[in-house]
């Protein structure tokens, strides 16, 4: 039996609580050794609550003292890159919350740091790891569903103005974007995990109702390498909240309706005429019973590390998702369709998600209501 993986948590807010509880659910596979936060009182309270022996405020010193194998980065997005670099420099693997960085340029810097260290970096995109998503991907790869034709990827959530009173929210320099970056990214990542590489994006983004620097909604048309097309909507203005993914294949429609996580009852399968038996047999006969969530991804990360393999979601996979986010902003703010090749070094949207800035940058925020 392998020794427990020693894990440190950086950032001790609400997302760290979710990480700690999920890690505890993995039993003796994990040894939580440290919690780190710039707020020492919060760090000590968090560690006491979760039975973690070492609370610290200085990440480098804490890592040197506790020598974790794996560091979970749960800070606000603007601190992700620095925390990951420090963890890699201390010889730890890194699992980093979404979005992994604020910009594509920072993402390249993260890749460079990971390659230099020889350690692995993975991003938390837990919706990939529910058994329903894995079953869907397996059926698609096996040819049961036929060719993908159309997809819908709609994250329609509600966040009141008070939500943005937290100083780092709703700002390009600390959150990296609005719902396209911070909310819908989970659904978009699952969309890409099923359909693969995208080739072109045409988009609109608006600051419609919230007093923020970023957008509060976006809409995009996405074309995929295999010819499928998708409608992607990201909103924090929608009182009836829903996360909805629909995949129309030649032989079946597969739908997922949930909010922040899904189980088996969130899926709906509608075979095309003549394909009922093959589709339903494959769907009901596949892997079952694992809800989406952090525990499922963390277990997969531990399995990969134990096997000496790259843990999911790899930086290459996360880059594809980050490029889609950047493409939505680039198309919305430039007024033109955008492909992956338009987002390399030299593009303003490689340097910053907002590029030269959204069209409302010159409008006083208080006028948006």
TrEMBL record:
* Segment forming the signal sequence: none
The Gfo/Idh/MocA-like oxidoreductase N-terminal domain extends over 5-122
- InterPro entries documented for this protein: Gfo/Idh/MocA-like_OxRdtase_N (IPR000683), Gfo/Idh/MocA_Oxidoreductase (IPR052515), GFO_IDH_MocA-like_dom (IPR055170), NAD(P)-bd_dom_sf (IPR036291)
Highest taxon of source: Bacteria
Q: Which SUPFAM superfamilies match?
A: Glyceraldehyde-3-phosphate dehydrogenase-like, C-terminal domain, NAD(P)-binding Rossmann-fold domains
Record GO terms (molecular function): nucleotide binding
**Residues annotated as transmembrane:** none
Q: Which parts of the sequence belong to the GFO/IDH/MocA-like oxidoreductase domain?
A: 134-246
Cite the PANTHER family for this sequence.
D-GLUCOSIDE 3-DEHYDROGENASE, UDP-N-ACETYL-2-AMINO-2-DEOXY-D-GLUCURONATE OXIDASE
What protein name does the entry list? Putative dehydrogenase
